[in-house]
Batch of 2 targets.
Target 1
Amino acid sequence: MQITTKAGSAASAGARHSILNLPLVPPQQRLTLNLLPDPVAPSPAALIGAPESSPSLVRRARPVLQGSHFSYLSPLPLSFPYEFPAEEAEEAESLGNKLEREIEQEQNDANKDAELTEEQQQAKELEAHRKRMRQIEVMMQRYEVQPSSVGGGASAGSTSKLEGHLPPGRLGQHFPSARLLSISPAALEDCLPHLDIGDSLEWIKSQHGRARPESYSSGPMASPPSSDAAKARFELSDLLSGRLIGAQLAGNGNGQSADKDAQVGTGTAYLAHKEAVEKGAAKDETDQERIERRIGELEERRRQGDDVGYAPWSLCYAGHQFGSWAGQLGDGRAITLLETKDPTTGERWDIQLKGAGRTPYSRFADGLATLGSSVREFLGSEAMGALGVPTSRALAVVSIPDLKVLRERINGAAITTRLCPSWLRIGSFQIHSSRSEWESSRMLGEYVARDLFGWTDVVKGGSIEAADAASGVERKPWARRLIEEVARRNARTIALWQVNGFMHGVMNTDNISLLGHTIDYGPYAFMDIFDEGQICNHSDGEGRYAYRLQPTMGVFAIRELVNALAPLVGFEIQEGRAPAPGDLLRLKSDEINALKKLAREQASEEIETTFTSTLMDEWKRGWAKRLGLQDAGSEDGKGRLIEPLLAALADLDFPTTLRSLCRLPAFLKAHGLSGAIIEGDSDMEARLKEVLRDFALGDKAQGREGLYDEKVVPEYMRSAKMDQFRPWLLDYAKRLLQEGRDGDQVTAEMKKANPRFVLRNWVTTEVVEKLEKDNDTEALERVLQMCIRPFEDWGLPAEGKSEEQVSEEARLCSIGRSLTGNLPSCSS
Ligand code: AMP
Ligand code: MG
């Protein structure tokens, strides 16, 4: 194991580990040991490229059934449909050539087919098809871990870290190499201070402006690493570009699982078995029995601390898209590599790749992401993190220049490394409720409550057969509590979206996190010219997810979560305890319906009220902070200050106007105004009005900007705009004075709540263009720095800053091309 210590940094006195050596969360708290895997690949060992593992099955779009929560798979960033290179086919001679020859032989025999009956011909075609399919499997197995490489890894048998596997198919020159474009120092410090990134940052800097192949940071075309620091970078880049597979495939039984699933076989063997059962040619459990057995085995494994190994996975979920039920969705291009726990803070982070290839949930798409959408997600997540909005974070973005992604045009591919304590969503419950898989809902709920929310009074699992009443387990209700927690967390997040002028763009229920983080940065945008009706997603013609409707759409999502968990909530109301394993299995559908009704009658309204009142409180608190007011009391609520402000902001640039307002408290102080304005003291009021007029107009001669960005408000509109703003400004100034705080201090505080830099759409677009055209990683780095420190005085002269630098910063803070007519491209 490679351990280095961060020299001189008090923040992380602990050891740092290369990415494969990051400490994993303890087995008991792992998602994969608490939830059910896809039956096609029931354990990490199924990723071994053995004849019956059928690797193409984990890339084939299909319904993933039997109560499954996730699918094991390895990242595979290749263009889709897959094309295997000719030399590879030759290499696969021993395995695949025989099949190829047989197919050819049969084609040569085609003229004999005239003599066959229709039935014989069909059977023959089917056989030929099967052979072709098998050949694909043979090719694909070369991209999976080879049986010979299992068990011999440096850390074989250890449950705390991963082994790196590089299958032969990924070694050849045709496998796309990767280039690290950026690593966020903020994500590293906030989430993974124990990660050793080697010389990655220096490497990125040194490769600015260079073109491949010299700029590859890992992969078959990159120069092999020579120092330890280079090794850590290579390993990081290889893992984050989806080439290197990090897994533990040996497990306790050296890949031999005692599961009946494994005996039935995985991949095609499993499917063939199922087909035989359906035809009555073989006997097997019913689906119900099978689910019960699988849950039982999982329980047993967890109880015994049995080590099944570890491998990446994609989540199965469903959702409502634009208000309509969309059925199974799932991680179509997201693959979670590992869950790590910071040894010092105990915080948990799930490391996930977005755009690393097909999964069973990819439907018709390629599982890849464009450079543009990846950079958008990378910068957007980090910008939101710095604004203090709960969000998934982005550690890195890696481009794969030789991998092409077809959208409206051909794009280069890239992969974002995203971090979140959990990637579970409201849709994670909906998939199971839509299929009446109540045991899966129970397992998921217990896991979220106990391991993610940390509610130690929630009992997880137990045996399905053993009646809990007899074993004396007290099962505290958790379902309603869980929904309320999800509601509160999302209410807070959405309130902060509003306060920060953030538009998510696709608030489908599959994009609403159970932990309340902002997730899935697609067509998001930050508000520039303020318009409450702003729509940022150009496929949202009706404006369902317009800025002003985001809170309402939050209510919709929470209502769907209530619907999904209604039988469990109803059960808890009726029985006064949470359901034990098996309890829900025994209920008939009319009993389930009665429980749903009970939940709707007794819980729905209150939960929605919890959501809306939390949102209102957080919204007021957030605005009070932006306005430098200590009292977020009710008199400053909707009626008094905030709604009139929003009306007054119409057509003004949201970020710059609010940043300008920060100067007001100090300005009032400098003009001798302090203390409350006494009602009826017309002299004082007149003086205040005069000062406010000066403030709003600015003074060019003194280099003092006015309240408005002159590029936004044309000359002829200024006086009308001023009239619109004046009454509010007067009200606001009075409130500031009434609080009686020191003006300079309030101004300083407000500057920490009103960012100078906001990531505007045009800025991201420009960064991407520069990357595409000139491999300009410096532009990306500059904008990243501004994203992670948005409150600094960007664009103002400061020591050590050249004039060009200052003006470039000011340009990046400016309105540029406004959002309207410049919506995010849909080339995702
Ligand atoms: P979104 O609304 O962006 O969250 O996407 C909806 C669903 O489509 C999710 O399940 C995504 O994983 C999936 N998806 C989006 N783009 C792709 C892609 N290029 N390949 C595979 N799946 C995708
Ligand atoms: Mg999504």
Target 2
Amino acid sequence: MNMVNIITKKKLGQELTAQEIDYFVQGAARQTIPDYQLAALLMAIRLQGMTDQETTHLTLAMRDSGDVCDLSAIPGIKVDKHSTGGVGDTTTLVLAPLVAACGVPVAKMSGRGLGHTGGTLDKLESVPGLSVELTEDAFIRQVNSIGVAVIGQTGSLAPADKTLYALRDVTATVDSLPLIASSIMSKKLASGADAIVLDVKTGSGAIMQTLEGSIQLAQAMVNIGALAGKPVTAIVTGMEQPLGTHVGNALEVKDAIDVLSGRTTGALLEVSLLLGSHMLVLSGRCATPEEGRALLQEALDSRRGLAKLKEMFAAQGGDPAVCDDVSLLPQPAVIRTVQVGRSGYVAEMDTTALGLAAQAMGAGRVQKTDALDYSVGFVLPVRIGDRVQPDTTLCTLYARSEEDADKAEAAIRKAIVFADEPVEAPPLCYAIVTKDGIERK
Ligand code: URA
């Protein structure tokens, strides 16, 4: 087997064999193929695409490039949930305790922030004392004892993806449908769940910004799941604006606590209920998403979801008192409220720019080794379609310094477009994709 021949075949748009895919995936995992040859192959894949068969084989080869987690010691059907990445997108912290409170085990491995998007592990680490690094045994024990655990990856899951993803990030080859689908699904299949709910974002803050691109990505991942023998439901949801009103690590934990305490409703709650209801269906807990939603609503109203979040924080060494008093979460040096300064309607948001504004404040990493400031970020109460007046609050900034607040204010103002005429609010859900087809909303 020879890398130059594999690159040449893909450059000419030909289909790679299973053996050729295995060869470069093993080489990526073991780091025996030089980066320049892998990078050339990634660009050829980005430009020529892959057949469904190639994409599925690539996914399975990446899954098998490292450890595959065995969750069989946890009774019942384990359903995972994964988002393709967004801003203010903290559904895991809302739905994991709600789903667990409905009696379905949630054994979830989450990731860190990437680019403009936030990561659940970073948010969880803003809870004083909380650890996301559990051994596989401790992880399984916690799920068996309280029904829920959210941790970082144990072992070495899909190491080939680690190599390829790092190269894609610096060679302009992230936006390739077969590469995104295989990257996400290889990790999900390796993490040991029996079924998967995918939240595929669409809009200005999403990895796939067009609706058709997002639906195609959803279909590709559902097909991979079917071929790998795992039921997958992919829900295409809007990321034209941050999902929750809070953006930043501790702020998003606060948003989730506010939702579970019944103090906040809106898009974050709605999308969490939607995704959670499909998790309950895939787990066999109920027959329809409507039934699932009613169960989740009951867990929310009775505060059993909030109690489960508290239990999870305590089990992972975190201070559960933050659930009763959110001021115990990290607090910033500067808090500044900014007004809209004009009348009209909120028309559009550049959500990637909003995510980058939070990252620049210290909520995300610019370099891999950057330390985060958990306290920073912003609260953005306005949503597309809202009518505003000059004194309407545009945002509240939580910053390390006045200078950082100035920069964030300028970036947020630039990212939000106002109109004089009324604007329709975009839908929260665009489509539900399963192996049986696409249900457009
Ligand atoms: N998230 C991943 O894990 N991989 C991608 O390729 C894109 C988003």
